[in-house]
Design a protein that fits this description.
single chain; alpha/beta; 11 strands; 18% strand; binds adenosine monophosphate; binds manganese (II) ion
């Protein structure tokens, strides 16, 4: 995230506050987060949504593109009652607010709501954010989108409560890897302290979000990790470790696709590789690719080169074609200029 621009200007914050405060009492507000929502996308959106409720916004919906099922680990989140399937989302709301999406391509079929809404507000922390909203609150130095969301709630004068704090905390712990990543600044811990002071229970939350999975998923992970491949010469000798999972793997273990989101955390432990990768089948010849780096390689450059995006050390893209080709493209992209310069 170094080299990223500054956070939102005072004028941008003021415009965002005005966009919310200036809404008429019967205004319709639609919240959208990115496809395949993670803890930051859902947690920021629902935490913020509950804040809007506290402000008296009555016609409020939250949604995300794709199949409407909320991954089991997030189904208990306060505010899930705001969620509607994308097909039921207001076609022309007065205000659309987007969460954790670096570009409008992450909004799938919901992208049309941006054009039809009275106005649009983007809350995000990706350095690669394209500024696709009418008003953009993008802070590349924020550890999670929930940092930006809380910044706006504070400016709107919404008092923090435990329900709002739960989503915002889930978002913060997700994107900092439970306060392990470099993004874990003093400001992150200060925000966590504020959230915890509302009385939320971090042990319960972490167990539900990170440390619970069905036995079938444990077996599936065993199989998929068992076929991981280490390529020490890749990425100019920094090493690549990768594995893949197909729809057939999921079906054999009777598991939904979202269980694979946690897989990258086991793969990236590999000491011999700076870059780790999980290729997850998402269609007939379509793959959702997760990339991670320990610091030598800027994987966002790899992802952008292959049509995706993300952060320096955590990025992704959608691969098309046979598995071999997708992995070959990653290998090739890792051979290009993607090393992080020495500072
Ligand atoms: P994931 O591996 O899915 O956890 O994603 C890691 C990071 O890469 C996140 O910050 C995402 O925003 C970004 N990312 C993942 N997939 C894509 C994609 N298809 N297009 C753009 N950014 C992506
Ligand atoms: Mn996200
Ligand atoms: Mn995020």
């Amino acid at each position: 995230m170094t080299g990223a621009g500054p956070g939102p200007t005072d004028a941008e914050w003021a415009a965002a506050v005005e966009a919310v405060r200036g809404l008429p009492a019967d205004a319709r507000v639609l919240l959208i987060c990115h496809v395949n929502p993670d803890g930051d996308a859902l947690g920021s959106m629902l935490g913020f949504g509950l804040g809007l409720r506290r402000l008296g916004v009555r016609h409020l919906q939250a949604t995300f593109p794709g199949p409407p099922g909320v991954p089991e680990p997030f189904r208990w989140l306060p505010g899930v009652e705001l969620l509607v399937p994308q097909d039921d989302a207001d076609p022309d709301p007065d205000l659309v607010i987007c969460f954790d999406a670096a570009g409008d391509s992450r909004l799938g079929d919901l992208v049309d709501r941006l054009g039809r809404a009275g106005t649009s507000l983007v809350l995000d922390h990706h350095a690669s954010n394209t500024g696709f909203g009418r008003i953009n609150l993008v802070d590349p130095h924020a550890a999670a989108t929930s940092v930006v969301a809380l910044g706006l709630l504070d400016r709107l004068g919404v008092p923090l409560d435990a329900e709002m704090a739960t989503g915002l905390y889930v978002a913060l712990t997700t994107d900092t890897g439970s306060f392990r990543f470099e993004a874990t600044t003093p400001a992150v811990h200060e925000m966590a302290a504020r959230l915890l002071a509302t009385g939320i229970r971090p042990g319960d939350i972490s167990r539900r979000i990170f440390d619970t999975r069905p036995f079938g998923a444990v077996r599936l992970f065993g199989e998929v990790l068992g076929r991981a491949t280490l390529e020490p010469a890749a990425a100019a000798g920094h090493g690549l470790v990768w594995t893949y999972a197909t729809h057939d793997d999921l079906a054999r273990h009777d598991q939904p696709a979202y269980v694979l989101e946690a897989l990258i955390d086991s793969v990236r432990c590999t000491a011999e590789a700076d870059v780790s990768c999980v290729v997850k089948q998402s269609g007939d010849a379509e793959w959702a690719v997760s990339l991670r780096s320990k610091g030598a390689v800027d994987v966002s450059r790899v992802a952008v080169a292959l049509g995706g995006g993300g952060h320096r050390f955590a990025a992704g893209f959608t691969g098309r074609g046979p598995l071999d080709e997708v992995v070959g493209n990653i290998r090739a992209a890792l051979g290009a200029e993607v090393l992080v310069p020495h500072s």
